[in-house]
Every structure is written in structure tokens, then in C-alpha cells.
């Protein structure tokens, strides 16, 4: 596990989580489901999975959505809030570097935009289309790939953001993908779309994939 304070991680992350993820201007509501059709995996019943060593994510592949994006590192802004990826034409996802790396025990958190202003769709524009059983691959700096399986997809009001479910301790390697969703409200979106996934297989060598 990483050595950061879990309380500080939760407090910092939820204070700003994707307040600006809509990117302002351009784009529209993501639609999709409201609420959870499948409950998140029980902490007590989670199957034991071999955790991976720490290795920073450098890419993210979501075959069901046609997403293949580089992954940048995100920290904290000067005001103590979580950074989000910059609004650019070449949109990328961002891993919150105070969370575990993908494959370590605990929830690894990756953020992305749904729209990027005048540039149009963001890298997570269709995140709400994922379904249970879809696969997500995180390419790691050490040349391996951590394979995850989606366990739940939720669209929730930002006011009701489930911080404990997203950032709380879990006893296996899990992944969280987070973006904005729902109807537009001014320059942002009303909701968050959250994908929950669990490590589903051992890493493969990048050269063998």
C-alpha cells in the first residue's frame, strides 16, 4: 500500500472531484443510467486476488468504448483540491498519484473529461455505456498490463457523491474511473459517472499482448 493518509486522500479528492470535469463549453449531457443497477462488490466477500507491485500507469485501454489513451499523473492544486487533466485538443486521462497504482491493493483512481470545451468530446465521453463484465486494461510503466473487469457503473448526483464507495479501503486491487454526466448545469454537469472494476487477471508483458 502507499503511505499517504487515507483520510487526507478522501478529503482532498471529494472536495473537488471533477467540479471542472466538463471542461466548460461544447459537448452535452452524457445520458445513461441514474443510480446503481448492480451493487458494488462486498468488501467481506471479495475474492482474494494477487496484488501487483507499484508501477505508475502510462496508458488506459477500454475496448468496449474504443478508448486508448495515455495517462498523465495528477496531484493536488494549490488550493488543496484534486487536479484534473488540462483542457486540450489531445485529451488524456489522469491518474490521481496519491491513490494506489492499478493492481495494488486498494482503489486506484483515474479521472477524465466528458467534454473539453471547444475541442468537443473528452476521453471519457461515453463512460456511462460500460457494462458489468467489460474489460479495462491499464498499461504500466514497468511494461506490464493490469487487466480489470467492470463490476458496476453508476451515475450519481455530485451532491450525493459516494466517497466511501469510491475511496474507501478494499481488500483487493480495484479501479475507479470517474467523469461528469447527466444534464448540463451552466458550465458543468449535474452528475458524476463512476465505473467500478476489479483486477481480473495477472498482468501480461507488453510485448506479448
Structure description:
The protein is mainly β and 209 residues long. The chain has a single domain, classed as Sortase, Chain: A, CATH 2.40.260. It is 8% helix and 37% strand. It has two helices and nine strands, in the order αβββββββαββ. The chain has helices at residues 6-16, 163-167; strands at 35-36, 57-62, 67-74, 93-96, 106-111, 135-140, 144-157, 173-185, 188-205. It has an eight-stranded mixed barrel with strand order 2-3-4-5-8-9-7-6. The chain starts with 5 loop residues before the first helix and ends with a strand.
Proportion of beta-strand residues: 35-45%
Q: Which class of secondary structure composition applies to the elements?
A: mainly beta
Give the name of the CATH architecture.
Answer: Beta Barrel
Low-confidence stretches: 1-8, 11-20, 22-46, 202-209
- H-E string: HEEEEEEEHEE
Lateral arrangement of strands in the main beta sheet: 2-3-4-5-8-9-7-6
Amino acid at each position: 500500500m502507499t503511505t499517504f493518509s487515507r483520510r487526507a486522500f478522501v478529503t482532498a479528492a471529494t472536495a473537488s472531484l471533477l467540479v471542472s470535469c466538463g471542461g466548460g463549453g461544447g459537448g452535452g449531457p452524457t445520458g445513461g443510467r441514474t443510480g446503481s443497477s448492480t451493487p458494488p462488490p462486498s468488501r467481506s466477500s471479495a475474492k482474494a486476488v494477487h496484488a501487483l507491485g507499484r508501477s505508475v500507469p502510462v496508458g488506459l485501454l477500454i475496448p468496449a468504448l474504443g478508448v486508448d489513451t495515455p495517462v498523465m499523473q495528477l496531484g493536488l492544486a494549490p488550493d488543496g483540491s484534486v487536479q484534473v487533466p488540462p483542457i486540450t485538443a489531445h485529451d488524456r486521462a489522469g491518474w490521481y498519484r496519491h491513490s494506489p497504482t492499478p493492481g495494488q491493493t486498494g482503489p486506484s483512481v483515474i479521472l477524465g473529461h466528458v467534454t473539453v470545451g471547444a475541442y468537443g468530446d473528452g476521453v471519457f465521453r461515453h463512460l456511462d455505456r460500460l457494462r458489468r463484465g467489460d474489460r479495462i486494461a491499464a498499461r504500466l510503466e514497468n511494461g506490464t498490463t493490469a487487466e480489470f473487469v467492470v463490476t458496476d457503473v453508476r451515475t450519481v448526483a455530485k451532491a450525493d457523491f459516494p466517497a466511501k464507495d469510491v475511496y474507501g479501503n478494499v481488500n483487493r486491487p480495484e479501479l475507479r474511473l470517474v467523469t461528469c454526466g447527466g444534464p448540463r448545469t451552466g458550465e458543468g454537469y449535474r452528475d458524476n459517472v463512476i465505473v467500478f472494476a476489479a483486477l481480473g487477471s495477472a498482468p501480461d508483458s507488453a510485448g506479448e499482448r
